[in-house]
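DM from R.C. (forwarded with permission)

"hey, sorry to bug you on a friday — could you get me a structure for this? deadline for the figure draft is monday and I only need the backbone to look sensible"
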Amino acid sequence: MDAMPLPKSWNADQILNDLDQHGFALIDDAYSSEYTQALLEECTSHFNQFRDAAIQNGVMSQIRSDHILWINDELKIAQQHIDYLNALSEQLNQAFFLGIQEVEAHFACYNAGEFYALHRDNPQQKNGRLISTVYYLHEEWQEDWGGELRLQDKNEQWHVIAPKPNRIAIFQSDLLHEVIQAKQQRLSITAWLRSRSSIW
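My reply, with the result:
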């Protein structure tokens, strides 16, 4: 069976090269306007199911204040995004021998004033997360609205990545990063390409 093709806007060679050189890559204009609109509608129609991401096992965390909804098979439009990430995982495995086995993902909503302080997605390589991705699905974003992804690349250089609509940021899960406080509602899908099954 042939591997699922990536969207035409995803330049696999560029993604692989950027990850190899810097530890992160960007995809702009990732999807068609029809798909992005359908995805946004699926996200917003489930707002009542989002939960406070700062509460882990009943304990309040001080480093984040966003709200999330884990994506499962019932969220069929978001599942298409995960299918593409699985296809990308195959290419990453071939290029870098990462051993990615699955993708876990959730919708994330940062309301005005919310943030995620400096952290790594895979501290001490304990949770199997190898590659992190963030897809921005809000309809518009202005420069003074905050919400940027601030990231230290593999060469210890810092980058500030704007949450441009229809953009995907891809980076090594062990890189230090944060989400700067948002001034408007910021919507995304955060996904991790993992080497083993999740425990959530």
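R.C.: lifesaver. The longest helix spans residues 76-96.
me: no worries. The chain has a mean pLDDT of 92.
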